[in-house]
């Protein structure tokens, strides 16, 4: 492969260029802001070209040749510390880059239509390009610090895009919350970076992973744990996940790109990148698995009770990310990354689908509002929907395909990746360290898989099946179904692309035991083979029949979830069925509905006390004690009077002149 | 080039002489702008002609003859790796500060601009002087114009603020003066010959001049106190919020961008190479104050209701990082501290300019009076956002580089030998995001709650041109810090090495029977000597 330098620079540089062109021109030229086709074209080009270059790298990549390294220039250097702006193209970064630029490109395309009526169109695309730039830095970086630049950079873009409609205080609250929760994680990540540097004197992945014996076991424990804490912020795990549901305040295409497909998977990428270090510390792996499984089930139970279409998807994302961390904790790095990829397909599709639905519902509200100003309803509330499949066939079909995929029904993408995670977790049950716990976590994950199928089909059925409920719920909305319409082709095309990938994407990781059963070589799992030089997977030791049994069990569980959802919600009978669940689960339902009251807990236990302490104690202490002491000292000196007189009689320009003459006089004496 | 350095330092005074002949308001403003711009231009060859590899040795040195027989006090200026960038930062801020006052100051312009020009000259003088008496003179000289700037052109409570500022700093400097006298005679005696006093920094900081442990302790404490008040390090910071709130915009900018650096600069310039044993012994104590300052400053900043006060307290927090880095005493951290001085100057300077711009329009600085400003002032919103992000240390902007190097250096510092300092200090990274973003949100986002604010107009060309250079440097340092850190690399490495050698030498030559008991215990002399003897014996 010739001149990777130029091509890598293009991959990284074009999105940045797109950001600069649209951002700067839009900022200073009001006329440019209305050139929507130009803005959209520039922004899309800035992502599609990098996508094709990544594809070119991917096709031409020679696994035997090892990673391609490209150094642009030295970034930070001081004494023994040195870090470059340098990129590394290898199996792992290529897969991630394909997802980011590929899914990113289609979401850019989708946004052309979705954001067309927004006055901040130029700004939106500038931010979106900047995000791609930061995300590519994160995944292509050849060292931890450049990764950290991308890591905080995507956090910034997330902040800017969540708060995109900043005039709504709630939205800017959500943005700020996202940034600060991420910062808490970043703090831990930063300390991990210091520890790495102290141990090996370098932050380059190659050097770190080649010198693992330079770390003490204590050091490895803390580094991996701190990096994981960093990941809980960005990749929304317990205890820092609470920002993601609020982040849905941003435009829906942002939710799809940043808060489902790419940014939130950064933590999984990081841990996979560092996997040779993680496998050395089973304690931390256990913690990762435990937190992952807990997050998965906690978020799934909340998702069960939500009525906001994006809210359900948000909690579903948290839950699916929990699955990925469970995989990481089970030493199944390939499986985790596999789920990252398939999840990117189906969740991006689901979010974009929800965007299409919201677009339509919003249109209805807008039209009704024009007729009668008193009409208001929430265009994201699924209780107002129902029967949409009749008017939005493409949205419905793609949404439905993706729902099957996430539910884990074979042979769609989610089935393969989720099954691999469950199998590895079960497999870890036989390990010496914390075996029984892994069996338990496998149980938790299996229940969560059932819940996933159930709540996702609840969402789909309630939105698209049955009757359109709005006319009955809102006065003056009679016949409003006539206002419903399918979205334009720039929006449905990305839906179809993603739905196709959600349907077939799983075939990149068909479990090897399937071919072994039929006497094959066992090389069906392309992804596993591809990632094997990087991901330090703990191998499966299960027998072939056991693997079949687990797979069949997983399928049955998922199918059961779908079936129950069909019985309860298939005809749009959402209200009645929710009431039944509420009755059966009792107090638990309230806990779920209230999202385990975590926000209130943090607010009450951390945020408010800190502010009150700073305001009522520290600020007063500063004024009364520290400054009071200073004043007392000064008061006794009694310079006050003379100084006051000095100022009040002064003609300053004279003082200035005398001062200068004095200085000149002294200097001339000294010098000559 | 020697002449050029002197010319750069004193060129601002040309403006004041011209004020004698051109007294109209417009002329005064333009003269000031042109003079400071020329000063900046004059300083550029000093930067480009600087020998990076030899940054440990002062360059462009002008050496006068001693003013008194037997007293080695002389005019001595030059630039080395430590002072070069701060010197450049000062000349860069010259025209920016003048332009920032263009429309907002209407009272006795000649006096006002004279003060700014003298301040510029004095600040340049401090950074360039290599004779400690000359250093002291410039150090004090810089106080006077600032005193008038706050006292005459300040806000409603200016008198109280001025007095507090003046007395506080004066107390510190007088203590330093006493210490300086002692140091001068001590060094003079050590130098030998017929010289009884020397203030030549090159000798005092050099490898041949050693000071006994007991004397080092007192001298270090006296100098450190003066510098810490200037920084200001917790708990000597209470003058700063007052001074900042009452000062006119230009005063705040110079105070934050340049004058606070005199403190941290002094710590590196004097305390590190001259009193190495005391420096190292007190490092954990200084680091403790620095870390308290980082967290305390951030928490108090969080609950401020006045934007300017908030930024002032954020300075307390940010300069805590610089002090932490200086006392970590390794190349990584000290390099971080030096670049962070520049960074703080750029981003906090920009923030004060920004606060001034909004104050000029709305005549209020109360956070609660704002909200939704981003809608009416988009360009302002972008500039403000970049300065905010630089201030909270976002990677890719300048603040991150300094903070990262400081924290990383503190983490591996053998002097602290405790990770707690760096880890606690790193929480400042979270807190900075909290108070800055919260403030930004309340000022810029949300609906416009105050009808008055709907009429705010966006930045004009003058204001944009003030901020653009600062923004460019924020990004430049963020992406290619090497272009800047290279100037001090050699200086830092050689001075740290020399200080370590000096401290070792002092330890070895200390006679246990001749020093007070507390000194022996404080420095653990016995153990250190045994250790060295042991190593020597085994060789």
Highlighted features:
A: 672 residues; 28 helices; globular; B: 539 residues; mainly alpha; 2 domains; two-stranded antiparallel sheet; two-stranded parallel sheet; 73% helix
Describe the structure.
The complex is a heterodimer of chains A (672) and B (539). In chain A, 56% of the residues are buried. Chain A is globular and about 100 Å long. In chain A, strands 1-2 form a two-stranded antiparallel ribbon. In chain A, 72% of the residues lie in helices and 3% in strands. Among the domains of chain A are: 44 residues; 32 residues. In chain A, a hairpin with a 2-residue loop joins strand 1 and strand 2. By secondary structure, chain A is mostly helical. Chain A contains 28 helices and 2 strands. In chain B, 73% of the residues lie in helices and 2% in strands. Chain B is mostly helical and 539 residues long. Chain B folds into 2 domains: 501 residues, no CATH class; 30 residues, no CATH class. Chain B is built from 22 helices and 4 strands. Chains A and B meet through strand 1, helix 5, helix 6, helix 26 and helix 27 of A and helix 1, helix 4, helix 6, helix 7 and helix 12 of B.
In short:
The complex is a heterodimer of chains A (672) and B (539). Chain A has helices spanning 4-28, 36-60, 91-114, 121-140, 144-162, 169-200, 205-210, 217-234, 243-247, 252-261, 266-273, 275-278, 282-303, 309-329, 333-371, 393-407, 413-428, 435-464, 470-473, 489-504, 512-517, 526-531, 544-569, 574-585, 587-593, 598-637, 640-648, 652-671, and strands at 68-78, 81-89.
């Amino acid at each position: 492969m010739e001149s990777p330098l130029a091509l890598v620079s293009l991959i990284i540089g074009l999105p940045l260029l797109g950001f600069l062109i649209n951002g700067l021109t839009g900022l200073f030229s009001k006329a440019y802001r209305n050139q929507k086709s130009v803005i959209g074209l520039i922004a899309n080009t800035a992502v599609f070209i990098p996508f094709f270059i990544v594809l070119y790298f991917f096709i031409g990549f020679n696994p035997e040749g090892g990673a391609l390294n490209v150094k642009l220039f030295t970034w930070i250097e001081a004494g023994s510390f040195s870090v470059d702006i340098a990129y590394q193209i290898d199996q792992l970064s290529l897969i991630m880059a394909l997802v980011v630029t590929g899914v990113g490109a289609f979401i850019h395309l989708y946004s052309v239509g979705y954001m067309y009526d927004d006055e901040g169109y130029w700004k939106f695309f500038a931010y979106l390009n900047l995000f791609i730039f930061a995300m590519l830095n994160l995944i292509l970086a050849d060292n931890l610090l450049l990764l950290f630049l991308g890591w905080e950079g995507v956090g910034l873009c997330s902040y800017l895009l969540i708060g995109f409609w900043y005039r709504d205080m709630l939205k800017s609250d959500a943005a700020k919350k996202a940034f600060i929760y991420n910062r808490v994680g970043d703090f831990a990540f930063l300390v991990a970076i210091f520890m790495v540097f102290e141990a090996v004197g370098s932050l380059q992945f190659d050097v770190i992973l080649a010198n693992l014996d330079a770390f003490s076991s204590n050091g490895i424990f803390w580094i991996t744990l701190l990096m994981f804490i960093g990941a809980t912020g960005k990749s929304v795990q317990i205890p820092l996940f609470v920002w993601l549901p609020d982040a849905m305040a941003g435009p829906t295409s942002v939710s799809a790109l940043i808060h489902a497909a790419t940014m939130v998977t950064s933590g999984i990428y990081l841990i996979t990148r560092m996997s040779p270090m993680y496998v050395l510390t089973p304690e931390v792996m256990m913690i990762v698995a435990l937190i992952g499984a807990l997050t998965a089930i906690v978020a799934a139970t909340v998702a069960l009770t939500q009525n906001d279409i994006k809210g359900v998807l948000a909690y579903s994302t948290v839950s699916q990310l929990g699955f990925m961390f469970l995989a990481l904790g089970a030493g199944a790095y390939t499986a985790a990354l596999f789920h990252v990829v398939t999840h990117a397909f189906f969740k991006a599709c689901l979010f974009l689908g929800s965007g299409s639905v919201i677009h339509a519902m919003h249109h209805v509200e807008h039209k009704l509002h024009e007729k009668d100003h008193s009409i208001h309803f929430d265009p994201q509330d699924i209780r107002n929907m129902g029967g949409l499949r009749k008017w939005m066939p493409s949205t419905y079909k793609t949404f439905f395909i993706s729902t099957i995929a996430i539910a884990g029904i074979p042979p769609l993408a989610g089935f393969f990746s989720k099954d691999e995670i469950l199998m590895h977790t079960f497999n870890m049950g036989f390990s010496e360290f914390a075996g029984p716990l892994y069996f338990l976590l496998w149980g938790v994950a299996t229940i969560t898989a059932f819940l996933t199928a159930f709540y996702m089909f609840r969402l789909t059925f309630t939105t698209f099946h049955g009757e359109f409920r709005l006319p009955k719920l809102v006065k003056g909305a009679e016949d409003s179904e006539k206002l419903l319409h399918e979205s334009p082709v720039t929006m449905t095309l990305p839906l179809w692309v993603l739905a196709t990938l959600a349907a077939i994407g799983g075939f990149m990781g068909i479990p090897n035991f399937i071919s072994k059963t039929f006497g094959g070589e066992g090389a069906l799992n392309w992804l596993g083979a591809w990632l094997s030089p990087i991901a330090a997977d703990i191998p499966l030791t299960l027998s072939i029949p056991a693997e079949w049994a687990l797979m069949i069990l997983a399928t049955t569980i998922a199918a059961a979830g779908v079936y129950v959802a069909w019985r309860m919600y298939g005809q749009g009978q959402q209200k009645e069925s929710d009431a039944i669940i509420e009755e059966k689960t009792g107090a638990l339902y309230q806990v779920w509905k209230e999202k385990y009251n975590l926000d209130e807990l943090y607010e009450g236990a951390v945020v408010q006390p800190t502010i009150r302490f700073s305001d009522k104690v520290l600020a007063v202490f500063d004024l009364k004690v520290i400054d009071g002491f200073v004043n007392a000292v000064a008061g006794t000196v009694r310079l006050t009077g003379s100084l006051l007189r000095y100022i009040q009689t002064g003609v300053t320009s004279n003082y200035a002149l005398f001062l200068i003459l004095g200085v000149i006089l002294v200097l001339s004496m000294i010098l000559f | 080039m020697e002449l050029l350095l002197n010319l750069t330092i004193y060129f601002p005074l040309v403006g004041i002489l011209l004020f004698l002949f051109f007294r109209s308001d417009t002329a005064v403003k333009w003269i000031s702008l042109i003079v400071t711009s020329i000063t900046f231009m004059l300083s550029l060859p000093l930067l480009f002609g600087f020998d990076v590899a030899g940054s440990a040795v002062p360059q462009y040195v002008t050496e006068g003859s001693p003013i008194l027989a037997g007293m080695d006090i002389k005019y001595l200026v030059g630039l080395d790796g430590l002072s070069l960038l701060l010197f450049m930062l000062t000349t860069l801020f010259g025209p920016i500060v003048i332009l920032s006052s263009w429309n907002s100051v209407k009272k006795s312009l000649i006096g006002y601009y004279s003060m700014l020009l003298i301040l510029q000259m004095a600040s340049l003088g401090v950074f360039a002087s290599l004779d400690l008496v000359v250093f002291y003179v410039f150090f004090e000289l810089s106080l006077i114009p600032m005193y008038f700037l706050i006292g005459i052109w300040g806000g409603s409570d200016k008198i109280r603020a001025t007095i507090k500022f003046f007395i506080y700093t004066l107390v510190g400097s007088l203590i330093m003066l006493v210490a300086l006298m002692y140091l001068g005679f001590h060094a003079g005696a050590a130098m030998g010959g017929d010289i009884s006093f020397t203030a030549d920094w090159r000798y005092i900081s050099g490898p041949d001049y050693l000071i006994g442990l007991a004397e080092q302790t007192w001298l270090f404490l006296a100098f450190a106190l003066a510098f810490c008040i200037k920084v200001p390090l917790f708990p000597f910071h209470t003058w700063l919020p007052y001074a900042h709130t009452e000062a006119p915009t230009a005063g705040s900018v110079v105070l934050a961008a340049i004058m606070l650096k005199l403190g941290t600069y002094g710590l590196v310039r004097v305390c590190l190479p001259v009193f190495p044993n005391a420096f190292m012994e007190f490092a954990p104590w200084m680091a403790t104050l620095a870390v308290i300052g980082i967290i305390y400053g951030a928490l108090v900043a969080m609950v401020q209701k006045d934007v300017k006060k908030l930024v002032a307290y954020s300075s307390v927090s940010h300069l805590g990082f610089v002090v932490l880095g200086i006392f970590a005493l390794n190349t990584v951290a000290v390099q971080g501290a030096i670049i962070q001085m520049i960074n703080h100057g750029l981003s906090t300077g920009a923030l004060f300019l920004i606060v001034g711009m909004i104050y000029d329009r709305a005549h209020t600085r109360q956070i609660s009076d704002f909200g939704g400003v981003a809608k009416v002032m988009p360009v302002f919103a972008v500039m403000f956002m970049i300065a905010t992000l630089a201030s909270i240390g976002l990677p890719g902007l300048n603040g991150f580089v300094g903070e990262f190097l400081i924290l990383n250096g503190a983490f591996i510092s053998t002097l602290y030998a405790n990770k707690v300092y760096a880890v606690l200090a790193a929480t400042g990274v979270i807190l900075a995001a909290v108070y800055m973003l919260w403030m930004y949100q309340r000022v810029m986002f949300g609906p416009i709650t105050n009808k008055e604010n709907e009429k705010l107009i966006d930045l004009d060309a003058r204001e944009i041109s003030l901020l653009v250079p600062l923004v460019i440097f924020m990004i430049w340092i963020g992406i290619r810090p090497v272009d800047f850190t290279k100037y001090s690399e050699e200086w830092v490495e050689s001075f740290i090495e020399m200080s370590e050698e000096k401290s070792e030498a002092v330890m070895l030559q200390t006679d246990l029977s001749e020093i007070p008991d507390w000194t022996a215990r404080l420095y653990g002399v016995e153990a250190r000597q045994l250790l060295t003897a042991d190593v020597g014996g085994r060789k």
